[in-house]
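pinging the channel bc i need a second pair of eyes. not urgent but kinda urgent?? the chain im working w is below, pasted from the shared doc
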Amino acid sequence: MSSKTRKSLNFILPLFLVVTIFLSNVSLNKDDLKIEDEDITENENKVFSEEDNLIDYTKFEVLSPIQGLNEFDEFKSAIDQKAKYTNFHGSLLVAYKDQIIFQEEYGFMDPINKLRLQPHTSFELASVSKQFTAAAILMLAEENCIDINQSVKQYIPEFKFEEVSIRHLLKHSSGLWDYMYLTEAFWKNTTAPINEDVVQLISKYQNSLNFRPGTRFNYNNSNYVVLAALIEKVSGISYENFIEERIFDQLCLNDSYVGIANRKHTYVADAFMGYGRGYVSLPASFHNQALGDKGIYASSTDLFRWFTALKNGDLLTKENVDLMFNQDEFDDFKYGMGFRTKYSESQEQIIYHNGIWDGYRNGLTYLPKDDLVIILLSNTQNRNKKYLQKYLIHKTKDFIQSPRLQQEFSQLEDIINLEQNLIL
């Protein structure tokens, strides 16, 4: 972050507080809208210079005025009961118009030793990681380092199939085989293959493509591992470093990590599975050294910060965000770039991605019509996750129609508009 940007932030934050206090004295009583910051514990893997020791302006907290509404109490009670009924261990977050309106951690990060989940507990995102990989590719495209319509072989000469483009990988329409099958059949080393090794396995052992690239959708993790290898080849740095430097550091995502080694981190929930009346710890699978298709860890708050910045165009141009959200092919294709897409029964667009890996079951759902984001992260191989997820979406849709909630957000928009006018 440049010193100029930090100076601007140090000016804007106090100005926002002054405007908020002024409005509260003039037109709002003590029960009306306010946003409070929460303390964030620095994680032990991040290194900050003295220059970086600034107020974290990206902190979020559940919008406090709504917690006094009867509608909120009813909503929370319903979700609490459903979480208990489904034996859910994990984190839920609901955001409306870029403000968190509900966030709760249920159960344990370690159900064997009864270590409870904390607000900054991070989870392996599984396939929800793919959106970070897609965004990283599009960042390189915006910097004219790559052309997503060109062959992968142009950037990775050892890649076998010249007819496969970067776009085909992003859209899961390449025809590649699953690298996990190739690994189990042909990999002889005791250490798992990394991204570059996966490219070599595909080039050496895949005889032909499953179909002509671009003619069919076939969800396949190989596509995003090859994309991670391409990021490394073009940028000259590891996939881990690229994601950390270009995304995590830029957005102050202090609870986000890349790679299997982070499962040993104090604030990362390990994986478990229900067994009898208790739980057993699940060991990491052999395929965890390859990244891009999985391997990113984040708390629900960090995942929300990331997604908010993405959808609001803070990281990519609108054109590329639209590609990720499949706006160019929504009616014909069910996958954008890093996101699945579909219509609801009422023909409302749903942009989402779920993930299952090593006991983690996660989901991020975005309903653009309502500007509603719903995040669910869990770590106990709970098959009831999908039922809780559907229930949470349904109850949230009802909750945001509350007149009192709409009134609170109308007041918030007045504050933001006044602040922007003063800055201008």
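so The chain has two domains: 3-131+239-423, 132-235. and Residues 1-59 have pLDDT under 50 and may be disordered. — does that match what u expected or am i reading it wrong
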